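Journal club prep, notes for RB
We'll compare a predicted complex against what the paper describes. Inputs for the zinc ion case:
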Amino acid sequence: MTVKHQVTEELLTAYAAGNLPEAFNLVVATHVSLCTEARVRLEAMEAVGGALLDDLDEMPMSHGSLEATLRLISDRPKEPIKAVPVQPEASCKVLPKPLMEYVGGDISKVKWRPIGMGAKQAILKSSGDADVRLLYIPAGSELPDHGHHGQELTLVLQGAFIDGDDRFARGDLEVADEDLEHTPVADIGEDCICLAATNAPLKFKGIAPRLAQPFLRI
Ligand code: ZN
């Protein structure tokens, strides 16, 4: 399938260059495994990256994504981040293959912890400067109003959530940054399961979520 809300060019380029922290790497790999068009974009980007590496002297280096790709390749960390294989969507499973390999099984293997109001989370192990977690939000529930100190990637795996005028369903990726303040609401009909990665703490408005923040590591 091709989803409505796809990964940004910037993130996909960094993913293709192996330059994302593990948490973001996992989210992008999982998104790409659910979206045919994103997978085609990634393959084109990897072909460009390969051609650049093969033939650095002869390629013009003056335009946008080529230049960005080259810069990301040259800025690559010494220890490469563990790659997550990009796979076609497995039918009938909640967790696509890259995520199943991470969790060690499908959704029944997830060790959820309650975070209040019927919501649950499971923080996944990751190295580097970003965290990644699975979130379970009961249908119709609101997440606390918050802003962001950095980037937040939210990928829907089951159900859907509404954010302002946009609806995000399975495979859709929302990229939030310092400029966005929001109150996502799980759509009615089905409980919503998301994979969310952040590279900085969230900025909560309410006192209760602020008090709970250190315990929830969010
Ligand atoms: Zn957010």
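Talking point for the session: The longest helix spans residues 36-54.
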